[in-house]
Specification:
Chain B: It comes from Sphaerimonospora thailandensis. The complex is a heterotrimer of chains A (286), B (802) and C (158). With 802 residues, chain B is of the alpha+beta class. Helices cover 31% and strands 23% of the residues of chain B. Chain B has 3 domains: 31-136 and 195-245 and 250-283, Aldehyde Oxidoreductase, domain 3 (Alpha-Beta Complex), CATH 3.90.1170.50; 287-461 and 626-765, Aldehyde oxidase/xanthine dehydrogenase, molybdopterin binding domain (Aldehyde Oxidoreductase, domain 4, 2-Layer Sandwich), CATH 3.30.365.10; 477-614, Aldehyde oxidase/xanthine dehydrogenase, molybdopterin binding domain (Aldehyde Oxidoreductase, domain 4), CATH 3.30.365. Chain C has 158 residues and is α+β, with helices and mostly antiparallel strands. The relative contact order of chain C is 0.16. Classes of the chains: A alpha+beta (286), B alpha+beta (802), C alpha+beta (158).
Chain lengths: 286, 802, 158
């Protein structure tokens, strides 16, 4: 199928992009890698009047190693994220989850920021952003605005970006030593969206869980932080003797899983429990 | 000359590949013609509705738009899409206008079209067409559709036909039967999903019409389009250029083919239509969709007395080319490879407001094989035998061939013992059974299951007299022509229409042997009614088993003509002239002529036998006496994660017997692909409609096809029991894998879950469905335990009070 | 209408395109490079895979304007002077194609996957091709072909 007509603009700087976006009106859309947007356009499920292609805005691209965080530019491709030594060293959960996104060709085009700004709860990166408490950086003509991940995913496909704002990237906190990570994705075929996914980060010491961050993919209109699990898992033995499983039993609490072609809500809730347990085990490396 | 090796049997690399791996392809959508216009169809968003208003005026004014048509514009000339298989005297074949005029009966039915200067503008103008609908009740469930008071798809009601077949005394077989297995299986609706979407290019010079189409059936299509549109057959040429897979889905006369012809006739300009995938999922005919009730009566020792089958087959909204015949192709296969005294088959075709169903790889036979092979596993459990043992006790022994089955087919040859023994050895059956027992003992959350499928199929469609007796509208012969060119190379014209099967290569091998010419010196022409005037095309694993034999016969005629010329030139009697390796030799002498020399001499025609027509070319049309019956044993081991319900195929072994093999590489490829599609039905694929009759699986993101990452490597091997009914000894290989694989996988899943009380999992066995089945069993088990406890308590009380 | 400059299979083109034109339509309909087919509209099937600046992309999910100033290699640009790329030969040798519709994309995806992993395991091959669907082969021979192609490419580059 074929997209409907739109105007197109390809700014070469962020300032120019903001200016174009500001002029283009409410129905303008930012085009990043296009791997989510183009299928929507082709199926005529979206009719933007203008696409602002930020593919040539160099400022949006790249990964920077800061003292307490890693900054990942919005236009950094999945492919680049997966191969980044900085990301793999300081925020391996991002690399692990990104490696499960779609397929290699899509990862060559698809971008880190595009995935977050698309705010699809079935996407793999939003739950990771939530689990890691990323700070998302949005720029407008007024300047930068820091949006904590917990506030970024407003609703289904609805990020907390104002018209005229562009996602610049995200600050991914360096969690420091002692943390283990895992992204557990359950999908029916390799390139299918996650039926449910679990992003987990666990800090252990002496065989005990000190702290855990758990967030769920496709368990509601937005990614969901499994706060009950996080509380329940604190202080339990990081082993296979059942306490992690017990904590994981609460994974679906507070979630509002969708029912669709691929799974009904009760099955998703069940999967969330099973997969959370597995993610915790893997993050604890036991 | 060095000793030539037989070409038949060699793993020749394919001649077809050169252009396919370099991109020098000729897909229908590649075609660009001067002045060509592009067609886009507007499709019904309603499953069932009356069309109350069509307004195309706004669309006519859109940029680049040349014409816009609604159904009324074609009403006088579009005819009705054909159904060539009126299976019973009283079958209801509703009028099927290519473009809906007054009523729509499935989502996706064409209701209007735009013809524009490019495909983008055509797509844009669709938005400007206004259509009003008055909704009617959708009809979605077959059982409900047949119930009193159901809304109807057509005025005549929802039943298309009931077809019955019986042999032996089924009442006797079931009377006092020690064991009766009674199961209902769901053959879910599938979307064939050939990788190349359909495409049509139609053109005319005002007198003659040419239609390029991504079709499996250029010859049948020409006949049918002539009958449907009134364009005389001799002025219509149909070309199937490179065709990217079919699997039955391109065995059809489609609305778009008819309409593109009508549009080009009306506008006088060439037109192209290319389907998008989401359009295709809606409107390429679907496959399967049957509700199968199968009952097996057996002795305590597992021997089958009789099989009874009651089938509901979803026709969808209309009967297309062979829609009602598809379940009947399975009617003679529910007995499988087994002996029994009685068989009873009833099939009712039901209309629903969905896309029509029609042939999909195996067409009727996978469904039949699934039901009987699933039932055999259930029988094994019931009588306490290993599932392979119960099959052994029932199957036709090698020594018993030829064998006329209870369904009336004569299986000419087969060796189920050999294929099974080979498969068991490759699989490591006993070791896997031991591991299974161990996992059961350990209550491993990941359980191991083993699935068996010992299948046969009827291939080589088909003896024309059998087709006639089943009321099919045409014959089942195939045609070939062999032309010796003056320079000694050979041109073959075949009536088969390959779309991935490798006929060019295989036919070259057959001709190379038959005429003693180099493999490289043979070319094959196909898929164009102007150059290949006669054929029945490619489907039903028929091309080699029927078309290949026609080719052999044509080669024989060429050889005999050449022998006469050779004898004349060597001044010998034709009876004294031997032929081998491309040379004619006078017996007992060294005098010889090559077939190439004979070809040149015949071309020159200076010195030919008295009255000899100066050509070696020959044609042959072969009509088989019988079907062919490939068979095999497929074994599948799965791991089922009982926590998530996910199934992983751990190993898959297939030993097939397709008779003699022309090219083992091609056969192996066919088997691989067939297995993948069979597994896909078992695990992944289903066309899902919602309660309003909207198809939910319109894209490949929703209709899940397995990728390389979702399938294991397959271990394949062959046994070779030649067919006795044709000179090549071949049986056909196109559908075997698909037919065998589905029950093997589901049997394995059910086997894995037997300790949990699971007796069936509906296809596709998605993780959720497996999980839900386990949940339900767990609930039932708990209820049973509670009842047992209560009973015991009750008894105790009674005992106490007594 | 934006003007784009694209090098396709070694030849430079300068063309005016509608912003919405998909790269694959630009290749097929504008340049006549019909070796790259289209199999779906959701970037699932991978039939339209080409190399864009050396990396595999699905040309149905890239706008032609996004390909401005880039270099595209399609299946038609892989062989030169009649010499097939080792991966094309490997697909032929291993009978890794039947109808051939997915083949161009499959071959280009395979070549791309070897850039990161020149000697992949069977599992890595299967994972690496997860975005390219084939309906004919069941993938067994495709995996074999990629392994063979990897071997031959290793020899030629060493």
């Amino acid at each position: 199928m074929i997209p409907a007509s739109f105007d197109y603009s390809r700014p070469s700087s962020l300032d120019e992009a903001l200016a174009v976006l500001g002029d283009a009106g409410e129905e303008a859309k930012v085009l990043a890698g296009g791997q989510s947007l183009l299928p929507l356009l082709r199926l005529r499920l979206a009719y933007p009047t203008t696409l602002v292609d930020v593919g040539r805005v160099a400022e949006l691209r790249g990964i920077a190693d800061h003292a307490d965080h890693v900054f990942i530019g919005a236009m950094t491709t999945h492919h680049e994220v997966i191969r980044s030594p900085v990301v793999n060293e300081h925020c391996p959960l991002v690399a692990l989850a990104t490696a499960t996104v779609a397929d290699p060709a899509v990862r060559h085009r698809g971008t880190f920021g595009g995935s977050l700004a698309h705010a699809d709860p079935a996407g793999d990166l939003p739950s990771v952003a939530l689990a890691l408490d990323m700070d998302l950086v949005a720029r407008s003509s007024l300047g930068d605005r820091i949006i904590p991940a917990a506030e970024f995913f407003v609703d289904y496909l609805e990020p907390a970006l104002e018209p005229g704002e562009i996602l610049v990237g995200a600050r991914v906190p360096k969690l420091g030593p002692g943390w283990g990570f895992h992204y557990e994705k359950f999908h029916r075929t390799a390139q299918a969206w996650a039926t449910v996914g679990v992003a987990a980060a666990v800090r252990r010491s002496n065989g005990t869980v000190e702290e855990a961050r758990v967030a769920l993919t496709n368990m509601g209109p937005t990614p969901v932080r499994a706060v009950t699990v996080e509380a329940a898992v604190r202080g339990v033995a990081a082993d296979r003797n059942g306490s992690l499983r017990e904590a994981a039993e609460q994974a679906a609490e507070g979630a509002d899983p969708p029912g669709d072609l691929h799974a009904q809500p009760d099955y998703r809730a069940h999967l969330a429990r099973v997969l959370t347990h597995r993610a915790l085990l893997a993050a604890c490396a036991v | 000359m060095t000793d030539t090796m037989s070409e038949v049997g060699r793993a020749r690399r394919r001649k077809e590949d050169a252009r396919l791996v370099t991109g020098r392809t000729q897909w229908t959508d590649n075609i660009q013609l001067p002045g060509m216009l592009h067609v886009a169809f507007l499709r019904s968003p309603m499953a069932h509705a009356r069309i109350t208003r069509v307004d195309v005026s706004a669309a006519r004014g859109r940029p680049g738009v040349v014409a816009v048509f609604g159904g009324a514009d074609f009403a006088a000339e579009q005819g009705s899409l054909p159904c060539a298989w009126p299976v019973t005297e009283d079958v209801v074949i509703p009028d099927h206008p290519p473009m809906a005029v007054s009523e729509v009966r499935y989502v996706g039915e064409a209701v209007a079209c735009v013809v524009a200067t490019d495909r983008y503008k055509a797509a844009d103008a669709l938005d400007a067409i206004e259509i009003d609908y008055e909704p009617l009740e959708p009809v979605l469930d077959m059982t409900e559709a047949l119930a009193e008071g159901s809304p109807t798809v057509h005025e005549s009601g929802n039943k298309a036909f009931t077809w019955k077949f019986a042999q032996g005394d089924i009442g006797e077989a079931f009377r006092d039967a020690p064991v009766v297995i009674d199961r209902t299986f769901v053959q879910q609706r599938l979307i064939p999903s050939a990788m190349e979407p359909r495409a049509v290019v139609a053109q005319t010079d005002g007198d003659r019409f040419t239609l390029h189409s991504a079709t499996q059936i250029p010859h049948i299509l020409r006949v049918m389009l002539a009958l449907t549109t009134g364009i005389p057959e001799h002025r219509l040429r149909v070309i199937a250029p490179d065709v990217g897979g079919g699997f039955g889905s391109k065995l059809q006369v489609t609305a778009e083919e008819v309409l593109c012809l009508l549009i080009t006739r009306r506008l006088g300009r060439p037109v192209k239509w290319t389907e998008s995938r989401s359009e295709g999922n809606l409107t390429v005919h679907h496959g399967r969709d049957q509700l199968q009730r199968i009952s097996v009566a057996a002795e305590r020792d597992g021997r089958i007395r009789g099989v009874k089958v009651d089938l509901l087959a979803d026709m969808g909204a209309y009967l297309m080319l062979v829609t009602p015949g598809v379940p009947l192709l399975g009617a003679f296969m529910y007995n499988g490879i087994y002996k029994m005294d009685a068989y009873d088959f009833t099939c009712t075709g039901v209309f629903t407001t969905k896309m029509p169903t029609d042939a999909y790889r195996g067409a009727g036979r996978p469904e039949a094989t699934y039901a009987i092979e699933r039932a055999m596993d259930e029988l094994a459990v019931e009588v306490g035998l290993d599932p392979m043992e119960v099959r052994r006790r029932n199957w036709i022994k090698h020594s018993e061939f030829p064998y006329t089955t209870i369904a009336g087919l004569t299986y000419d040859s087969g060796n189920y013992e050999a294929a099974t023994d080979r498969a068991l050895a490759l699989f490591g059956y006993d070791k896997l059974r031991a591991e299974q027992a161990d996992r059961r003992d350990r209550r491993d959350p990941v359980q191991l299951g083993i699935g068996i499928s010992t299948y046969t199929e009827m291939c080589g469609l088909a003896p024309s007299r059998v087709l006639g007796s089943l009321s099919y509208g045409a014959g089942g012969w195939e045609h070939a022509e062999v032309r010796m060119l003056p320079t000694g190379t050979v041109e073959v014209v075949t009536g088969t229409s390959p779309h991935g099967q490798g006929h060019v290569t295989a036919w070259s091998q057959i001709v190379a042997d038959a005429l003693g010419v180099p493999f490289e010196d043979v070319s094959v022409i196909h898929g164009d009614t102007a150059s290949s005037h006669k054929g029945m095309d490619t489907y039903g694993s028929r091309s080699l088993a029927v078309g290949g034999i026609a080719l052999v016969q044509a080669c024989e005629k060429v050889r005999e003509k050449a022998r006469q010329v050779a004898a004349h030139l060597m001044e010998a009697s034709a009876d004294d002239v031997e032929f081998s390796d491309g040379r004619f030799r006078v017996r007992g002498t060294t005098t010889e002529r090559t077939i190439q020399e004979i070809a040149l001499a015949t071309f020159a025609a200076h010195d030919l036998p008295e009255g000899f027509e100066p050509r070696l070319d020959a044609q042959a049309t072969f009509d088989p006496d019988n079907f062919s019956f490939p068979h095999g044993t497929h074994l599948c081991a799965v791991e089922v994660d009982t926590e998530t319900g996910a199934t992983t195929i751990r190993s898959y072994v297939a030993v097939d017997d397709v008779g003699k093999v022309v090219n083992p590489l091609i056969v192996e490829g066919q088997v691989h692909g067939g297995i993948a599609q069979g597994i896909a039905q078992a695990l992944f694929e289903e066309a899902v409609y919602d309660a309003e009759g909207n198809l939910l699986t319109t894209t490949m993101a929703d209709y899940l096809l397995p990728s390389a990452a979702d399938l294991p490597d397959f271990v394949t091997d062959r046994t070779e029991t030649p067919a006795t009914t044709n000179p090549l000894g071949v049986k056909g290989a196109g559908e075997a894998g698909t037919i065998a694989a589905t029950p093997a996988v589901v049997n394995a899943i059910v086997d894995a879950l037997r300790p949990y009380g699971v007796r069936d999992v509906r296809m596709p066995c998605t993780p959720e469905r497996v999980w839900r089945t386990l949940q339900n069993r767990a609930l039932q088990n708990r209820a049973l335990q509670n009842r047992a406890l209560q009973n015991r308590a009750l008894r105790n009380e009674e005992g106490a009070s007594a | 209408m934006p003007r784009i400059t694209v090098k396709v299979d070694g030849i430079s083109y300068e063309e005016d395109v509608e912003p919405r034109m998909l790269l694959v339509h630009f290749l097929r309909d504008r340049l006549g490079k019909t070796g790259t087919p289209i199999g779906c509209d959701t970037s699932n099937c991978g039939s339209c895979t080409v190399l864009m600046d050396g990396k595999s992309v699905k040309s149905c999910s890239v706008l032609a304007v996004q390909a401005d100033e880039s270099e595209i290699v399609t299946i038609e640009g892989l062989s030169s002077d009649g010499n097939w790329h080792p991966m094309q030969r490997a697909f032929h040798e291993e009978h890794a194609l039947q109808c051939g519709y997915c083949t161009p994309g499959m071959i280009l995806a395979a070549i791309d996957l070897l850039k990161d992993d020149p000697d992949p395991s069977d599992d890595a091959i299967r994972q690496g091709l997860e975005g390219n669907l084939c309906r004919c082969t069941g993938y067994c021979n495709i995996v074999r072909a990629v392994r063979r192609g990897a071997g031959e490419m290793g020899v030629t580059t060493r």
